[in-house]
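Progress report, Aim 2. The chain analyzed during this reporting quarter is listed below.
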Amino acid sequence: MGTRIKYRKYLFIFVILLFISVVSGIFAGSIEDEFNQAAYDKKNPVKTDAEKKAQLESSLLLPIKRTLLQNVEYDDYEKIKASDFDYERSVQNQMIYYLKYKTYLLYLVYSIDPEEYLTYPTIVKVIKKDKNMTSSKPKQKPISKTK
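Predicted structure tokens for the chain:
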């Protein structure tokens, strides 16, 4: 009978210690988790709006320079700055941008966010506006319903 009480006493102490170690591990968090969070924060710093805008304009500048270099004999492509062109993001798809530089209109599709990463678009479509092209929307004929 004495050994049975002795084993129960040790079992009770073991269960209490096990419970304390599990609870302290849950609430304290591990050093590994803290290390991984610090490494993630260092690798992916939070960018300010000004940094995002500068990154986006750098990503938009690349296709303009490349397009001018490939399609036209344009000597001043290195002098182009972000303030020289206008751009807007598509309302339907956040990875699509429309860009206007002088007489060039560009349609750019990115695979990753150009505000976060310096990237080149996966799809680039270029239209050079001629003098006879208008900037207004084309007129559409109304659809007539027939009975």
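Residues 2-28 form the longest helix (27 residues). Confidence is low (pLDDT under 50) at residues 142-147. These observations will guide the mutagenesis work planned for the next reporting period.
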